[in-house]
Amino acid sequence: MIITCPACQTRYTVAAEAVSAPRGRKVRCASCGHVWFYRPDAAAAPAKPEEKPSPPSPLPPLRADPDAPLVAAPVRRRPPAVPKWAVLAAVLLVFAIVVTGVLARNRIARAWPAAAHFYQALGIRVRLARARLVIRHVAPVRSGDELIVEGEITNTGDTELTVPHLRVALRDAYNNELAAKVIDPPTAQLAPGAVAHFSATFGHPSVHASGVAVTFIAG
Question: Looking at the whole model, is its pTM more than 0.90?
């Protein structure tokens, strides 16, 4: 119900049972501080002809007098309803993120290794990257005054890789390095599972050269 301050005409919403006692109760206006004794029968009396109803105004909360505490019912507004399309869009977005995370799990785990433990905890298998570039089948062959070192580079991973430069060294029977040279890679990029052949030629090598070591040069 609504009661009105007789001093400033400010209106308040209050619970009907809070002011329905026949003997009435004392209340205080939160706007002007005026205190008056409210009685239901007085409020029900007809208004004087010359009195005009006050225009509607926002109803502030009513502060009750300490002798008769009175709690006004707050005016609550319903939160705006969320459109159905927004809910559907959110569901589809979450679904797309989950599907992408599952399909791209191998790439995600390679870029962020800690994610592999998360996938494994969910029971999802993750295939991490294996050994990458491998040098195989290195063989030195003498031809006149030259020694030709040949071999293969294999991409054992599952993504295309950049092939770095190679360092080819000749060694003696005691593993001492006798000569070395840096050669360009046979190809700039190597696809998964692909093999590239390389070759390095040493002119007038030492007669003590009996071994070969081939390594990648980082950077």
Answer: no
